[in-house]
Design a protein that fits this description.
With about 240 residues, the protein is an alpha/beta fold. It has one domain (about 25-235): Vaccinia Virus protein VP39 (Rossmann fold, 3-Layer(aba) Sandwich). Helices cover about 25% and strands about 30% of the residues. The protein is built from 7 helices and 11 strands. The chain has helices spanning about 30-35, 55-60, 75-85, 135-140, 145-155, 170-180, 230-235; strands spanning about 5-10, 10-20, 45-50, 65-70, 95-100, 110-115, 155-165, 185-195, 200-210, 215, 220. The strands form 2 sheets. Strands 3, 4, 5, 6, 7, 8, 9, 10 and 11 form a 9-stranded mixed β-sheet that branches. Strands 1-2 form a two-stranded antiparallel sheet. It is globular, with a radius of gyration of 17 Å.
Length: about 240
C-alpha cells in the first residue's frame, strides 16, 4: 500500500518493520517496555496487549525464544502485524490475534508475562478531532481503559506471572491501585526523564500476580544527553554497539 513504509527495526539491520503513515508508529515507549520487562529461561509464553504493528513482539524475539501472542483490536493493524511477522520469518514464534483484549480468552496455558503500551489519554483529555480513527483508538481510552487492561491481564496470567506496563507518571497511582485490586503486586518501578534536569515523562511498572509485597524503585533513565542526543543507555536499547 502507498501509505506503508518499510524501515529497519532500529539498529537491528537484520529485522524489518512495515509501518503505516496513518496509524500509530512505535516510539521510545515501545523500546523502553521491551527492555524493561523481566524475561527468564522459565518464560515460555508472552502476551502483548494492543500490539498494533507487532513492534514489541519483534523486539522481544531478540531476547527470548518464548512464544509471543499479540492482541490487537484494529483489523488493518492486524494485517500489518502479520506482514511484519512473516517478513521476519517469525511465524513459529509470534501469533497475532484480532480481538478486543477485554474479550480475549486464554485457550491454552496462561501467560508467564503480559506487556502493554496502552492508550495514554482518557477520552476528552486531548482533542482528537484531527486524528485518524486508528490514532484515536491507539492513543485514547475509547475501546479499553486502564482498569479494563489490568483486569484482563489478571485473567490471562498464571500464578506468579508478570505484568509490565509503560505509561505517564501521573497515572502511577491509578496503575498501582488497579494492580492491587486485581491481585497483581507491584514489584518494580522506573521513571524515565527526557533529560537530567527535566521532570519524568514516562513510568515503567512491573508486578507479579499473587506475588509478595516489596516494591523496588529502580535508578532513573535519562533518554537524552545534554546535547539532546539519545543517551548511551537508550542507544544500546536500539541495538547500537556503543
Amino acid at each position: 500500500m502507498e501509505n506503508e513504509v518499510l524501515n529497519d527495526l532500529l539498529a537491528h539491520n537484520n529485522m524489518k518493520i512495515i509501518q503505516r503513515k496513518d496509524m500509530f508508529n512505535f516510539s521510545l515507549d515501545t523500546v523502553l517496555l521491551s527492555h524493561f520487562c523481566s524475561i527468564t529461561k522459565n518464560t515460555k509464553s508472552i502476551i502483548d496487549f494492543g500490539t498494533n504493528n507487532a513492534a514489541i513482539p519483534l523486539l522481544l524475539s531478540r531476547r527470548t525464544n518464548a512464544h509471543i501472542t499479540g492482541i490487537e483490536i484494529q483489523k488493518d493493524a492486524v494485517d500489518v502485524a502479520n506482514k511484519n511477522v512473516e517478513m521476519n520469518n517469525l511465524e513459529d514464534q509470534i501469533s497475532i490475534v484480532h480481538c478486543n483484549l477485554k474479550d480475549y480468552i486464554v485457550n491454552d496455558e496462561r501467560a508467564d508475562l503480559i506487556v502493554c503500551n496502552p492508550p495514554f489519554f482518557k477520552v476528552g483529555e486531548k482533542s482528537i478531532l484531527n486524528e485518524s480513527e486508528y490514532l484515536q483508538i491507539a492513543r485514547h481510552e475509547i475501546e479499553v481503559n486502564l482498569e479494563e487492561i489490568i483486569l484482563a491481564a489478571s485473567k490471562s496470567m498464571h500464578y506468579h506471572a508478570k505484568f509490565a506496563i509503560v505509561h505517564r507518571p501521573e497515572r502511577t497511582i491509578d496503575i498501582i491501585n488497579y494492580m492491587q485490586k486485581y491481585g497483581i503486586v507491584p514489584k518494580r518501578l522506573k521513571f524515565v526523564y527526557p533529560k537530567f534536569d527535566r521532570d519524568a515523562n514516562t513510568v515503567l511498572i512491573e508486578g507479579i500476580y499473587k506475588g509478595n509485597d516489596g516494591l523496588k524503585v529502580e535508578k532513573p533513565l535519562y533518554a537524552h544527553d545534554e546535547n539532546g542526543d539519545y543517551s548511551l543507555e537508550v542507544r544500546r536499547m536500539f541495538g547500537e554497539n556503543v
